[in-house]
Design a protein that fits this description.
single chain; 207 residues; Collagenase (Catalytic Domain); 9 helices; binds zinc ion
Length: 207
C-alpha cells in the first residue's frame, strides 16, 4: 500500500498535486501524532475522533488559493479554504517543524468542522477558536485570520519562543498554535490550562 493509499484508508485524507514520498511521510507522521494526542485526551476514541472531525480533508501542494494568499501576505503561506481543503506552501518541508505546520493547518479545518455556521469559522468565526480566545480573556471580532491579539491579556499571549509568537497574529492562529504546541511542545503554551480546555471542548465534548 502506498503512503497516499494509507492516508486515504486510515484517515480519509485525499492528496492532490506533486507530493513526493517525504511530503507524504510528514503528513502521515502528523496524523499519527495527532491521533496519539487525541487518544491521550479521550482514551479509546483517538482514531474515531480523527475520522469524525478531520475527515475528509483534501491536501494540495501549492494551487491558486495558496498563490493568492502568499501574494497578499508577501511571504509563503499555507491556507485552509474554503473549509476542508488545505493548500500547503510547496516549501513546507523547509519550515522548522513541518509536522507542527500540518497540525496547525488541521486545526483550522477543525475550527471550521466544529462550527455550526455555514461560513468557514477560520475566516468568519463561530468555531472553537472564538471560544478559546474568549476563555483566554479576548474578544474575537472581524476577519479571524488577521484580527490581532483580540485584547487577550499579555499573560495569556504567546511568547516569542513559540514560533515567533505567531499565535498572537489572529484568533484563528491562536487556536491553531494552541493545538499544535499542545501536541509537540506544551511548555511553549501561554498557560498549561489550554490543554485542559482542548480536552474538554474539542476532544471530549464531541465524539
Ligand atoms: Zn494558520
Amino acid at each position: 500500500m502506498t503512503t497516499a493509499d494509507l492516508l486515504r484508508s486510515e484517515y480519509g485524507w485525499k492528496i492532490s498535486g506533486t507530493f513526493n514520498e517525504t511530503h507524504l511521510a510528514v503528513l502521515l507522521m502528523a496524523a499519527q501524532d495527532l491521533t496519539a494526542f487525541a487518544e491521550a485526551q479521550a482514551p479509546g476514541s483517538g482514531q474515531s475522533w480523527m475520522r469524525r472531525w478531520l475527515s475528509p480533508v483534501h491536501f494540495h501542494l501549492g494551487g491558486l488559493p495558496q498563490w493568492v494568499t502568499t501574494r497578499l501576505a508577501g511571504h509563503e503561506m499555507s491556507v485552509v479554504f474554503p473549509r476542508l481543503d488545505i493548500w500547503l506552501n510547496a516549501n513546507f518541508l523547509t519550515l522548522p517543524n513541518p509536522r507542527h505546520h500540518i497540525v496547525h493547518e488541521l486545526a483550522h479545518v477543525l475550527d471550521n468542522h466544529l462550527s455550526t455556521r455555514a461560513l468557514p469559522a477560520a475566516i468568519f468565526g463561530g468555531g472553537p477558536a472564538d471560544r478559546l480566545v474568549r476563555e483566554m480573556g479576548g474578544t474575537p471580532r472581524g476577519l479571524r485570520f488577521s484580527n490581532g491579539a483580540c485584547g487577550i491579556p499579555p499573560v495569556n499571549q504567546w511568547a516569542v519562543a513559540a514560533g515567533g509568537g505567531y499565535g498572537n497574529h489572529a484568533s484563528a492562529e491562536y487556536f491553531a498554535e494552541a493545538l499544535a504546541w499542545s501536541v509537540y511542545y506544551p511548555l511553549n503554551l501561554p498557560t498549561p490550562t489550554i490543554v485542559n480546555w482542548l480536552k474538554a471542548n474539542v476532544f471530549l465534548a464531541v465524539r
